[in-house]
């Protein structure tokens, strides 16, 4: 006879598990907007959809690459490539991060892939912090709105923040403070399932049924994970843009001295700050009395992260890594603002 002692709880557990999913939160948010502000529902959905579609190309590329490397067994080579060269990888990650045109949300799929493949957290953090800050188009837009000194200062701050974060994380990792950075993004496979790990990757993995199965499994698992959390991230971003104007937040950080710089970093990080829209906005605020140091701090903190990006990052890494990521971003933004103010 079947055991029915646990069956009454099963439906409630299933409902509770469903409520905890990002999809349920997204639906709840949209329902709330439809009830409280029905005229703005289409704009919220359109913005979130367009943003997710734009980031979708990065998600697709990152997931395909990660699935291919997993199916071929190339993660062994990736992990081996980082052995003994951590300092060099931190330097390269910070430098090349400035060439990657990713915002704080778009960089997450690549960070997830790098961590899942065993890349050192220190090098990943260097890329993570520097990449959203600057890229060639942003450099030109910033120079046009705020002048070349500000643009060059932001570019230097991007690389410096990447190096600072990378070496701080390396020290923390070696001391045992940061271990196993990933939360749920765990590598799949074991000794009794999936393709056998070999010394050399099998690049033509499609000839092996077990490797084809692993490719499909990795693709759907990783793709769904990133899709659901970034969808929630962009819905939150749409709410921020529609109901919490960035200029209103920035006006609270005017004035001179160190305190406005610190406040600018604390306010700028959770706020949405598009790197293409921010320079003209900050140019107008600086004309109204906002200090150059506060503007630099606000721009760097806002580019490093935002509430949407935080939501996605929280689902990806463990709390200690999450706190380190935010702490490095805020501290780096404050230091950059103070130095730029002095110069």
Account of the 3D structure:
- This protein is mainly alpha-helical and 343 residues long.
- It has one domain.
- The chain is built from 16 helices and no strands.
- α3 runs antiparallel to α10, α8 runs parallel beside α13 and α12 packs antiparallel against α16.
- The radius of gyration is 22 Å and the shape is globular.
- This is Permease.
- It is found in: Cell membrane.
- It is a multi-pass membrane protein.
- It holds the Pfam family ArsP_1.
- One of its GO terms (cellular component) is plasma membrane.
Question: What brief labels describe this structure?
Answer:
single chain, 343 residues, mainly alpha, 16 helices, globular, disordered N terminus
Summarize this structure briefly.
By secondary structure, this protein is mostly helical.
Secondary structure topology:
Blueprint: H1 9-19, H2 22-36, H3 41-72, H4 75-81, H5 86-97, H6 108-116, H7 121-130, H8 136-146, H9 148-174, H10 209-243, H11 246-250, H12 258-268, H13 278-287, H14 292-304, H15 307-316, H16 319-342
GO cellular component, one term: plasma membrane
Main location: membrane
Family: Belongs to the UPF0718 family.
Question: What kind of oligomer do you see?
Answer: single chain
Count of the separate structural domains: 1
Output the number of helix runs. 16
Enumerate the spans where pLDDT stays under 50 for 5 or more consecutive residues: 1-6, 185-197
How much of the sequence lies in strands comes to: under 5%
Largest sheet, if any? none
* Tertiary shape: globular
